[in-house]
Amino acid sequence: MPKTPDYFAGKTVIITGAASGIGRATANIFAREGANVVCADLNEAGVKETASQVNAKGGQALALRIDVTKRPQVDDLVERAIDAFGTVHFLFNSAGAAIRRAKFLEIDDALIDKTFDLNVKGTLYGMQAVLPHMLANKFGVIVNVGSMAHRRGGPGSSIHYAASKGAVVTMTMGVAREFAAQGIRALSISPGPVKTPFQDAAETSPELAQKFLDDVPMRRFGEPEEIGELVLFMCSDACRFMTADTVYVNGGGGWR
């Protein structure tokens, strides 16, 4: 939570991957605080539903169908956000996926390219599009989604995904340090397993899901809202000295 009451009122956040899961939960949390929320996702119906939820909570929403793997579309996203609300204060790069599970020797060019296009380039494009605007205002907070997988390496099912999220965490650190003296903070969140459509999309088997759960001392998966509340804190004036770090949110597990 912010130190200052109504800190987020009237401020603008761009959220990619906003059609479901962590992105949607975070959009609703920022709406609760009175923020303008630019909801972006490839899933047009889902992102429109998220925007409707934001508006119902009293926030102002803009719903945009965006493919974050396409730089021109991401550039347009930022331009339209500025046109709509004047200023962008926060960027939450939530869009990401493992595409599909695969053992290491099964990872082909198509899978590695799609994984890095979405997770790495999608994050890169968002940051490069919004940073000139934030630098001109001498203020901005960027939060990216890493993963516990970058610490575990993803053996047996998702080395491609773990590698891409390792790149996200490293890139976030570099951006944070390069622009720290210019009013910019950049952070990443590395969740353990969270209850989102992610696992179904990645074709996670029930056996693998149970293995993930067995490694969590809290004996449950995280909730999307638990990640969203952390994003809010990271962006708030209660977190002004924190940058370049990744925060592990895992119920005590996710290390195997």
Describe this structure in words.
With 256 residues, the protein is of the alpha/beta class. It is 46% helix and 15% strand. α1 packs parallel to α2, α1 packs across α9 and α3 runs parallel beside α4. It is globular and about 50 Å long. The mean pLDDT is 95.
How many extended strands?
Answer: 7
Structural class: alpha/beta
The N- and C-terminal alpha carbons lie at a distance of: 31 Å
**What overall form do the CA principal axes indicate?**
globular
Q: What is the CA-based Rg, rounded?
A: 17 Å
Low-confidence stretches: none
Q: Assess the beta-strand content as a share of residues.
A: 15-25%
Quaternary structure classification: single chain
Per DSSP, the total helix count is 9
Mind summarizing the main beta sheet? 7 strands, parallel
What's the helical proportion of residues? 40-55%
- Arrangement of strands in the largest sheet: 3-2-1-4-5-6-7
Mean pLDDT: 95
What is the succession of H and E elements? Answer: EHEHEHEHEHHEHHHE
What's this entry about, in short?
The protein has 256 residues and is α/β, with parallel strands linked by helices. Helix content is 46%, strand content 15%.
What is the secondary structure topology, with strand pairs?
Layout: E1 12-16, H1 21-32, E2 36-41, H2 44-56, E3 60-65, H3 71-85, E4 90-93, H4 109-137, E5 140-145, H5 149-152, H6 159-179, E6 184-191, H7 198-201, H8 206-214, H9 224-235, E7 246-249
Helix pairs in contact: 1-2, 1-9, 3-4, 4-6
Key attributes of the depicted protein:
seven-stranded parallel beta sheet; alpha/beta; 256 residues; 7 strands; 46% helix; globular
